[in-house]
Design a protein that fits this description.
single chain, 265 residues, alpha+beta, Alpha-Beta Plaits, disordered N terminus
Length: 265
């Protein structure tokens, strides 16, 4: 992750470019982001398109690895290329011409050679959509989790406020498989009414696996228990104390932000 000491001068190597892609996708028919041998994934479709353009495999590095059924309104990923026949901003159209309609490149541009879409990200924002309805509405079925009763918004937001700051989130997510720690810094967390939906919005430097979905399910379950019960779960550092994760279909990767020295909007 970048520190504030980085300058605005970035290295660019002759003959090789680092290209950043802004991406959107409907996760319904994908088994998540990460390439898998036999299942359809977002990374797999994009790398297939890049391989067709380059005539060889090109590896794509994403800001985050979304799970099966999870969507993105703004995922970001980078790759390296020595192809000089395609201007940086034209990779968008070139890649889109080879992609299925449930994944799109929204923008492509050149960035500094040392830029990394994952490790240089300083803030990620997710939205989770809850549909308040006695029955599932067909047009929303793949993009939300239905709840039959409208919860008390003030209570939900008092619980969400307990997440803000740096905490060990072991109770509310699964730590990295590489033995990394479970401490994350949440900058903002709130439930917002957008009828017929309630949208949980959360921004943090990084997230554990299934963290957002587990938070949503656990806060809903703790609505009648109060803040103390939720804080006890958070501080227990025990995954068995929290609820099972809410379904992936309600979750959207909404925004990814980078250190200002990269000048990426």
């Amino acid at each position: 992750m970048n520190s504030g000491s980085k300058t605005s001068t970035r290295k660019r190597t002759m003959g090789r470019r680092t290209i950043l892609l802004d991406l959107a996708y409907d996760g319904t028919d994908f088994c998540g982001w990460q390439v898998q041998r036999s299942d359809r994934t977002v990374q797999g479709e994009l790398e297939r398109a890049l391989a067709e353009l380059h005539g060889q495999r090109v590896v794509l590095h994403a800001a985050g690895r979304t799970d099966s059924g999870v969507h993105a309104t703004e995922q970001r990923a980078h790759f390296h290329t020595s192809m000089d026949s395609v201007p940086s901003e034209r990779f968008r159209d070139a890649i889109n011409s080879k992609l299925p309609l449930d994944v799109r490149v929204l923008r492509s541009r050149r960035v500094a050679d040392e830029f990394h879409a994952r490790y240089d990200a300083v803030l990620r924002t997710y939205h989770y959509h809850l549909l308040v309805s006695p029955v599932q509405l067909p047009r929303y079925r793949n993009y939300c989790h239905r709840i039959s009763r409208r919860p008390d918004m003030a209570t939900l937001n008092r619980l969400a406020a307990q997440l803000i700051g740096e905490h060990d989130f072991s109770s509310l997510g699964l730590p990295p498989g590489d033995g990394g720690h479970a401490r994350r810094r949440v900058e903002a967390a709130a439930f917002v009414s957008r009828p017929p939906f309630i949208v949980f919005q959360i921004s943090a430097n990084a997230f554990l696996w299934k963290m957002v979905r587990t938070i949503v399910a656990t806060i809903l379950a703790c609505e009648s228990c109060g803040e103390d019960a939720f804080v006890d779960i958070l501080q227990a550092r025990d995954r068995s104390r929290a609820q099972l994760a809410a379904p992936g279909r309600g979750l959207f990767l909404h925004k990814v932000r980078y250190h200002e020295s990269f000048a990426i909007d």
